[in-house]
Amino acid sequence: MNAAKPQVVILGPGMITQLQVLPSIYHLQRQGVVGPITICGTRAKSLQALHEDAGHKRAFPGQSFTPVPDYRKKEPDGPDAYKKVLEQLPPRQCVVVALPDQMHYPAIKEVLRHEQHVLTVKPFVLTHKEAVELEGIAREKGLLIGVEYHKRFDDRALIARRRYREGQFGEFKIGQAHLIEKHYYMHSNFQTWCTCENSDAFTYIGCHYVDLVAFVTGLKPVSVSVYSKPQPWPNGKLGYLWTDARVLWENGACLNVINGFGYPDEGPGGNTQGIVLHTDGKDANGLIWHSDQFRGVKHAALKKGGDAGDTAFMETNPDYFQLVWRGGDGLEPVGYGFRSIEYIVKAICRVERESAGLAAKDALAKRRELLAQYDREGLMATPANSAYNELVIEAGRLSITNGAKEAVIEYGKEPGVRLN
Ligand SMILES: NC(=O)c1ccc[n+]([C@@H]2O[C@H](COP(=O)([O-])OP(=O)(O)OC[C@H]3O[C@@H](n4cnc5c(N)ncnc54)[C@H](O)[C@@H]3O)[C@@H](O)[C@H]2O)c1
């Protein structure tokens, strides 16, 4: 039906939308890849802040989006505004899900019910059963679901993957990863949802490195144990703010992942993160060592910026997401944060383009054929090719809520997790 530019509807006007999703979509709109943008939230006031964002106005002059609820029309606040938008959306546009983790499942189900393609921020959903259900609905209807694990689009990950798959490293044996967000997250909206009953530091951010190890090595995770002592957010709600996870892999390898909300605000980067994997060949050992925070850039400004976590001395990551001037008006997003969103949006456009003009039955068959190709290729995370992530999250949640007992992942006909 729609070989033209898809409309984009973004659910959730929060931090990731402000930082990465919306600037990427704006740039794709400027390039003529996508059409009008709508953003749905729960509070007109937070949409107003995003709508009037001075950084976006500078980078994307003349571009804007329709906020729902619309503060200019004094529309009422409420959690169901997005459902009305979906009802009016023509089928097979692009809906971006950037809601809190535990809302992904019901929201994506609703989005699929309205025949829409989906780009969702990670984690896709929180249980394997939910993932299988949504994957089945999407396959049936020939709708694409791309899960935005942007580390996959970092060139260093792609280089490591190619070398690993060519056998240059031997086999992964033991490794460590860490990703600690800045302290100011303690005072953000996170405290309203990243609480013990919904999520934890490992589920929220550790999944990136688990996915990356699977992406590079092709190995499957088979067991998870996660230690954390609940601690209060500033609003008094309890959260698993610091987590230590041990993930075992099908070949006996072990990955230790530490996560938390507490890298010093005065630390010179957006967070601290990296990964070290030790590998074994027949007569020699290999090593994959990525400093994912400090990438060789040191800048010292005369004074620090006004946003939370800004520092005068900066170890800027030039690779994730930056806005740079490349001629003309405004700024362009560069980095793997942009490339990842671009890839998924263009995949949706391709599925529509290559099935356009066919009879309904043939168009559905064509869309399914392309979805299967994306599943097989495995560059973009899809529900079918990254279901281990939901099993790890499920196992991690089972473990963390049971005093860090080991939770085993069982694959086979009906994959699932159980305490050992
Ligand atoms: N590195 C990454 O890949 C990365 C980084 C940050 C966040 N994320 C993911 O992005 C998602 C959102 O995280 P965030 O940091 O933007 O959180 P956030 O709390 O800043 O934003 C969530 C937004 O969703 C809105 N929302 C809640 N219920 C809604 C509803 N019914 N309808 C519309 N909007 C609703 C909230 O008002 C808020 O604006 C999470 O799943 C998170 O894990 C991924």
What is the structure about, briefly put?
By secondary structure, this protein is an alpha/beta fold. The protein contains twelve helices and 20 strands. The strands form five sheets. An eight-stranded mixed beta sheet has the order 14-13-7-12-11-8-19-20, with helices on one face. A six-stranded parallel beta sheet has the order 3-2-1-4-5-6, sandwiched between helices. Strands 9-10 form a two-stranded antiparallel sheet.
What compounds sit in this structure? nicotinamide-adenine-dinucleotide
Q: Roughly what fraction of the amino acids lie in strands?
A: 15-25%
Report the biggest beta sheet as strand number plus sense, adding barrel if it closes. 8 strands, mixed
Q: How many DSSP-defined strands?
A: 20
Q: Largest sheet, order of strands side by side?
A: 14-13-7-12-11-8-19-20
Query: Judging by the overall fold, what is the CATH architecture of the largest domain?
Result: 3-Layer(aba) Sandwich
Quickly list its features.
alpha/beta; Rossmann fold; 2 domains; eight-stranded mixed β-sheet; 20 strands; 24% strand; globular; binds nicotinamide-adenine-dinucleotide
Task: Note down, in words, how this protein is organized.
The structure is a single chain. By secondary structure, the protein is α/β, with parallel strands linked by helices. It folds into two domains: 8-150 and 330-385, Rossmann fold, CATH 3.40.50; 155-316 and 392-400, Dihydrodipicolinate Reductase, domain 2 (2-Layer Sandwich), CATH 3.30.360. The chain contains twelve helices and 20 strands. The chain has helices at 15-30, 44-51, 54-59, 81-88, 104-113, 128-141, 155-165, 190-193, 201-217, 336-355, 360-377, 387-400, and strands at residues 8-11, 37-40, 66-68, 94-97, 117-121, 145-148, 171-182, 221-227, 231-232, 238-239, 242-249, 254-263, 271-280, 285-291, 299-300, 313-314, 322-324, 332-334, 407-410, 416-419. An eight-stranded mixed sheet has the order 14-13-7-12-11-8-19-20, covered by helices on one side. The longest helix has 20 residues, at 336-355. The termini are far apart. 43% of the residues are buried. The mean pLDDT is 96. Bound molecules: nicotinamide-adenine-dinucleotide. Residues 11-17, 40-42, 46, 79, 82, 98-101, 103, 121-122, 189, 204 line the site of nicotinamide-adenine-dinucleotide.
